[in-house]
Amino acid sequence: MKRINSLPAFFLVIWFIGASFSTPAIAQEENGFFDADDEFVDVVGPGPEGIPQTESSPFVSRATWNHDDQINTGMLNYGLSKSVYYQFSGEDIFEDGNQLEGSLGFNWNWTHFNKLDYRIPRAWSYGAEFLYFNSTSESVYGGSGNVSGSSIDMNLYMFSVALKAFFMDPVEDYLQPYWGVGWGAFFGDFKTVQNVTNNEFTTNFNGLLNYQVMGIQIMLMERVGLMAEIKNMRASADTSNDPFNQGDGESVELMFDGVIIGLTGFIRL
């Protein structure tokens, strides 16, 4: 059977968790205040010395804009519109290939936040990202049973910069939805041992990429939280050779269009 990745389900769970926690936090703001001992008083009225004491969420009560840089890493799932293994080799066993996976510690995102004096958006950010995906013929093959095909190992490296707009305050609010765009470049290689002939090839490729991204961040502690996002990726590359004669004999154009779903953890610096 074809493997079903659970990362999209995790993405939905994060949204539901965020929604369930945000409602009581808002209700507390509207019906009471926190006293000097940080105890919530469930009444409507001013706090000590006539100053209302309200907080957007107990998770971010001590967060400040002094920590406006963020580092992320986590799990990624790259669903290609068309299997790049099939485009490269033309072998039918790769036509419905599995999605590419990125693991914790092999992808990194840095973001710098900038506050805005607008109701929407509340803030914007710029940042940079490095992604790494590795796959083999066995991990990409999406069918069942034993088959015969070429051995192909692929390494894929992606670098990009992104701009994002946050619809809620990314420091003071518990839920932080955002939308953005990104641009970058990528490169990689195939290590191939062809079926039947056992001929060995190394094929390099490189190209440009751009994407639109939307997601949500959830503060779990003062400077720690989770981020779930979806990237709509557009990317293409040319190869250094064409061992399977899928192009013009010297190179083949590969399309890396698809969707990257990520569930990552972050820390504020």
Query: Average pLDDT, to the nearest integer?
Result: 84
Question: Helix segment count?
Answer: 3
Uncertain regions: pLDDT < 50 for 5+ in a row?
Answer: 9-31, 43-55
Multimer state: single chain
Radius of gyration from the CA trace?
Answer: 23 Å
Total E-strand runs: 12
Percent helix range: 10-25%
Strand order, main sheet: write it out. 3-5-6-7-8-9-10-12
Sheet with the most strands?
8 strands, antiparallel, barrel
Beta-strand residue percentage: over 45%
Shape descriptor reads elongated
End-to-end distance: 44 Å
* SSE ordering: HEEEHEEEHEEEEEE
Derived from helix and strand composition plus strand pairing, the structural class reads mainly beta
